[in-house]
């Protein structure tokens, strides 16, 4: 079993993604999580380039990482300047990071036409910058920026830049597909050429030549290109959690690591840590305030979801028939989705998964009812809470903790163009009637507040732990204009779980009430009467 060095650049390259803005505190939380997962290198940012990165490295001085080495990222010295005189390089040294990741120019296009530098001076900058940090006792990783594009235009010079970095004392030479446009077969060809070139020139060197790969996803091939490089002998992979990064992102480590560990016999993460991969993905997503991508391979909510009835029937008999791996290996789980594509197997599996007693329930009747309701616009694949309530109602086991007598909603707008909604809810419960009024930022917010206020009289503990976290509206058919049917999905949560409920109507308030009422019914389903 070969081994692989994992280099995470979520805190620097990932932070360059659109809509991602980590604070120094966010970076530290993620860094500690990555260290706990066993990553070998964590790139914290570019100290001296911005206050947040500088603050992160200042805070990191008091942190002892158990598994990872902290890397500070920066460029080679500027033209005509010695490394020890360059303020940016001195800031890198002052970070006290044990690893320095330097990027240098490889592509003659950048050197001559953009930087307006000479090819010879660029080689000096690379060689001397690497050597200066080595003289300070730092481990240096060299990122050959735009290497594959540079190789295509001027292969001999691109290789000379690697020679300069290696002569300076770099520990790993990382080949970067910075524009993200290379294809796997091109990665393979270039990797082989690089190995031959370096092998010929440094065959007597005591240091083993180590190559790495840093791929961007502009052609949707970052993972494929990374895996190709690994097959060609790369010993370090660089990437980000969830593939976050500039433009279309970086190589996604939540895919690369499982592929290497589970499918390529490459040792990079222990089974215990790999089983926390989905949790890591969600943690970084929440910290970045970016919604998780359901379709993300391995760790996405839909990665092991089954919708077609024939598929579900087969999965019940032999999961391997429709799943390329066991979901639990990466901390995920198998999901069966209820929809108009469902069969009896979907209902049976879903009921078992949710702990629903199917005694006295005909699965075929449930399937028929689901298909009828989905014809009206319901969508149970996104509303598993409502699916549970549907089965319980059909089984005659549904015990409502409250029943609506009536509600009223009003919306007021004043001369300053401020809107305020008010709701009055009248309910009946096994303990008696209750009428409550409340305001909200919108009619649904007002209804939520009024219903919650009424139920608090009878179920104070349940109401204290439950909250609405998301509200979505979709027009199902716009041909009716403002009278079109709408679907409302509501996500609610308590400390232990999240559930979704649905409502459909031509009236958006009625659809919202259906979803809202079901959400409270779901929560109160375990309450004692």
TrEMBL record:
Superkingdom classification of source: Bacteria
Organism phylogeny: Bacteria, Pseudomonadati, Thermodesulfobacteriota, Desulfobacteria, Desulfobacterales
Similarity field: Belongs to the alpha-IPM synthase/homocitrate synthase family.
One of the Pfam families matching this protein, by short name: LeuA_dimer
Keyword Ribosomal protein: no
EC number: 2.3.3.21
Keywords, in A-Z order: Amino-acid biosynthesis, Branched-chain amino acid biosynthesis, Isoleucine biosynthesis, Transferase
Top-level EC class: transferase
Pathway this chain belongs to: Amino-acid biosynthesis; L-isoleucine biosynthesis; 2-oxobutanoate from pyruvate: step 1/3
Entry annotated with the keyword Amino-acid biosynthesis: yes
Gene: cimA
Catalytic activity: pyruvate + acetyl-CoA + H2O = (3R)-citramalate + CoA + H(+)
SUPFAM superfamilies named in the record: 2-isopropylmalate synthase LeuA, allosteric (dimerisation) domain (SSF110921), Aldolase (SSF51569)
Domain (Pyruvate carboxyltransferase): residue spans on this chain: 4-275
UniProt cross-references to NCBIfam families, sorted A to Z: citramal_synth
Origin species: Desulfobotulus pelophilus
Name this protein carries in UniProt: Citramalate synthase
